DNA sequence: AACCTGTACAACCGCTATTCT
DNA sequence: AAGAATAGCGGTTGTACAGGT
């Protein structure tokens, strides 16, 4: 069945797994095709089953990763737009290295992609910026790029974000600042953005998040100094043509099964709409939260 | 042309959380 | 309730490739 001579590249190795050996390393186009075909016709199930039934000598974990990071039809590939960069930087300042949660706000982008982008590009850029700014400039020092910014945020207070389900506006992504201090409980020393996001249905992975937010849907004036980034417009139509085209191309990609529902709802101009989540955060009503929204000047998100 | 170096990114690994039996 | 299986996450490594010498 499997022949080592078929290996497409030298970078392929194998690990023994009982009766047969599992391939490792880069995926060949043939493997991609098998997995893609299988996923499109059967949907996502148990990944070890996927690996077996698709006729791949890969572990389920490897198949899952390949699908999520590379083969998923809704992936937006190509360079990050300035808007996306800004958003990543901003979210990272809040969430730290919680790549999956950051990715949840960037439709078509994967945690791995964002992580790589951060480590290879943004981190370097921030580092450079720190060297070109005086130490007294609080926006430029290196630690601001990650945990320090994060910590300073949650030293202030707690912040949650949510989607306004009642609005079809592309700018319906709104930021919410909550003046309540969770710290009083003493339990969640590590802040609650993720909790809030999860509770409103935004933090539970990629699949449920499509249609949440286009990166260009709102402007984020970065708190951090990042040298070459263009200033960001709030104009939702400013999304790059390429992105728009890709979004449109993805419009018809729908995969359904028990665990996987992918459906991009888009309006006529390629913006995403959000539907059908129960927008409660624990015991809070959104209306109550909204009342406090404007009281947090450190937030860069626009609150309608 | 050959080698070296830096960069981007795909993939793996180890761990934790969750679900299933 | 406990253990096994599975899913998911973040850190790290490995590879391909481009550019410089």
From TrEMBL:
Record bears the keyword Lyase: no
InterPro entries: Homeodomain-like_sf, Myb_dom, Plant_SW-associated_TFs, SANT/Myb
GO CC annotation: nucleus
Molecular function per GO: double-stranded DNA binding; sequence-specific DNA binding
Record key words, sorted: Activator, DNA-binding, Nucleus, Repeat, Transcription, Transcription regulation
Domain HTH myb-type positions: 19-71, 72-126
Organism superkingdom: Eukaryota
Chain spans, region Disordered: 126-145, 240-259
Biological process, per Gene Ontology: positive regulation of DNA-templated transcription; regulation of secondary cell wall biogenesis
Compartments, record wording: Nucleus
Domain Myb-like, first and last residues per copy: 19-71, 72-122
Keyword set includes Ligase: no
Bias type Low complexity, positions: 128-140, 246-259
Predominant localisation class: nucleus
PANTHER family the record matches: MYB DOMAIN PROTEIN 55, TRANSCRIPTION FACTOR MYB46
Protein name: Uncharacterized protein
Protein source organism: Tetracentron sinense (Spur-leaf)
């Amino acid at each position: 069945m499997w022949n080592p001579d078929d290996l497409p590249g030298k970078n392929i190795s194998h690990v023994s797994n009982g009766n047969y050996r599992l391939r490792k390393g880069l995926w060949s186009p043939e493997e991609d095709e098998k997995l893609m075909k299988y996923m499109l016709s059967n949907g996502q199930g148990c990944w070890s089953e996927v690996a077996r039934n698709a006729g791949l000598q890969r572990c389920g974990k490897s198949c899952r990763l390949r699908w999520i990071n590379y083969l998923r039809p809704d992936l937006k590939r190509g360079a990050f737009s300035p808007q996306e960069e800004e958003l990543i930087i901003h979210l990272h300042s809040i969430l730290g290295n919680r790549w999956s949660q950051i990715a949840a706000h960037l439709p078509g982008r994967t945690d791995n992609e964002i992580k790589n982008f951060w480590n290879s590009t943004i981190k370097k850029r921030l580092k450079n910026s720190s060297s070109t700014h005086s130490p007294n400039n609080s926006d430029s020092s290196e630690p601001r790029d990650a945990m320090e910014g994060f910590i300073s945020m949650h030293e202030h207070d707690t912040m949650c974000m949510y989607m306004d389900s009642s609005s079809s506006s592309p700018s319906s992504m709104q930021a919410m600042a909550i003046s309540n201090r969770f710290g009083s409980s003493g339990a969640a020393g590590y802040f609650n953005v993720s909790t809030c996001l999860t509770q409103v249905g935004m933090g539970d992975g990629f699949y449920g998040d499509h249609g949440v937010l286009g990166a260009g849907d709102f402007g984020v004036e970065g708190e951090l100094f990042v040298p070459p980034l263009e200033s960001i417009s709030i104009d939702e139509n400013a999304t790059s043509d390429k992105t728009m085209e890709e979004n449109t191309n993805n419009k018809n990609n729908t995969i359904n099964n028990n665990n996987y529902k992918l459906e991009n709802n888009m309006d006529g101009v390629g913006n995403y709409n959000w539907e059908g989540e129960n927008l409660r955060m624990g015991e809070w009503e959104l209306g109550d939260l909204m009342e406090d929204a404007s009281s947090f000047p450190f937030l860069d998100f626009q609150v309608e």
